[in-house]
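pinned: reference chain
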Amino acid sequence: MATVSCKLSFSFYSFLLLLIIIVSQTKGQPDFLYNFCINDKGNYTANSTYQNNLNILLSNLSSNTQINYGFYNFSYGQNNDKVNAIGLCRGDVKPDVCRNCLNDSRVVLTRLCPNQKEAIGWYEDCMLRYSNRSIFDIMEVSPAFYLPNNNNATDADQFTQVLGNLMKKLKDKVASSDNSRFKYATDNETGVNLNFQTIYGLVQCTPDLSLQECNRCLDVAISEIPSCCNNKVGARLVTPSCKIRFETYLFYDPPLIVDDPDETSPPQEKSKSSHTTTIAIVVPTVVVVLVLLTLIICICLRRNRHSMAGVNLEEIQDAENDDNDNDDDIKIAESLQFNFDTIGVATNNFSEANKLGHGGFGVVYQGKLLSGQVIAVKRLSRDSGQGDIEFKNEVLLLAKLQHRNLVRLLGFCLERKERLLVYEFVHNKSLDYFIFDPIKKAQLDWERRYKIIGGIARGLLYLHEDSRLRIIHRDLKASNILLDENMNAKISDFGMARLLLVDQTQVNTNKIVGTYGYMAPEYAMFGQFTVKSDVFSFGVLVLEIISGQKISRFLDGQSQEDLLSFAWRNWREGTITNIIDPSLKNGSQNEIMRCIHIGLLCVQENLVDRPTMATIALMLSSYSLTMPLPVEPAYSMDGRTRSLSYTESSGEDKVTTGSLESISISVNENTMS
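pinned: its structure tokens
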């Protein structure tokens, strides 16, 4: 009877669960402030690959609880069916409110634009846009809209003057921000000749823009005020890349309660009361239902408690933990799983002719899928004990990472005792293929090298601060920077990467992996690694890119002097131009000197003295930022850290990737050291 009763109870449980769903959906989604369905970028058909990719991308866009600053930019799909999406919330909106707003946006926007490949919609708290073309890192001011306040200023000239001062102040605040994840500012200005009336203002850009592009977008928006909203006491001017707003009342957090909403509150804010009423009805209903569910579950558990008497609760917990650590992790990438035969056909059964390179953990092959897509396949060695770790690291990390400056994981295979990783094919091989070749380096003029430096910086910033996980790469070097057809840098090889917990700043290890010369001293000697370890490697890379010389094989005349020592000596003696690759004679000397300065700051011995990647990104994009002077770098010939030996030590501290000189291979050398 207990079993029958429990079945009935859980049937009632299912009914009540359905009731919750019905009740919760009575809220519905509010209307957009404004939206555009872009018709000239193409249409998709129902149940097409594009629509499927769009639904998958949008359903996961706002579910990322690791992002807490309101900016989401992700892609999904391949070739013509690839979807790019941006979600941006107003800077003062709380994370849960932001995600709810974006969730409403995806439902409403796809309903209003049922077959357009590109669309954009705005709420008061957020914006959502998607497209089949690239929309990341691009400043766009169209399509746009404006919403002026209905009330006019009593003294238009004085109001315009105070408003102009306020907009300038807000632009300066955005430009002076040292946080690359926020390009948002609010402030107010009080006019003496306006009877001390206060004007409140807000400006915001999408965080993927450079400061220069953000300022350019804001300039365009501000310049439209006279034509759209002249003499108005408030207005919104909104574009895909930035927006501005000003009012004579406080409209951003914390909200100001006013007595006369008809006089000061914008129309859309009046609708919030109806939403509040809906919530007031829904929430108590859901609470009552949850209480009933709890009672039902308790009754069933009590009736069946005798059947649980022999179960070890610790074993249950261990099983749950094991699932979380193993099965659930792999399930993250289940949709990316490839069939072994498919990869075999694509690589001509892993033929020697398709071989791109090899290293300590396996071989990389070029392949071509039946769809025509070119891929790179890493086949991990069966006898490599570290290969299992490599495989797990790269699948779990790369399946969760999406950034234009990271090599994208397309899938994996776990069949026939094989461990295969499938990546996007990057056409122009690795950075070391060009930068260290006396002839090929001429293809990389300063403009391209500067672009590569910026791309590496953005990729590392994403890993350290902007991704859902906080990741230290640990093997950043020239051969792990791949170049696409437009010479954009893509960081590869995440087999040695490590995660940091949210509150962690440092991790210790007794097994050191990586490549000598690029290793930070605290890691090479003591096994301590932080995000500043990657910063050190970045600094070495910058100096290599500028000089065209390897850190491990740099020669100054007849004497053997490492690149860091040579750069530091010439910096100190005022002859720093000696480090510059002669092929860069037509490059911007100011930019080159600034990058050498940044490189020397990154390789300082004391990790506290090294800048963060957020600061480095700002240094690269803003010439108004004053940089501190560097001190003597680690590993300099006359410095105290030169005692580090390049010979392998014994025991647990053995350097597993061992050699001074990295293996030079061709396209998509991913986890080879």
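why pinned: The CA atoms of residues 44 and 115 lie 5 Å apart. The chain has 20 helices and 21 strands.
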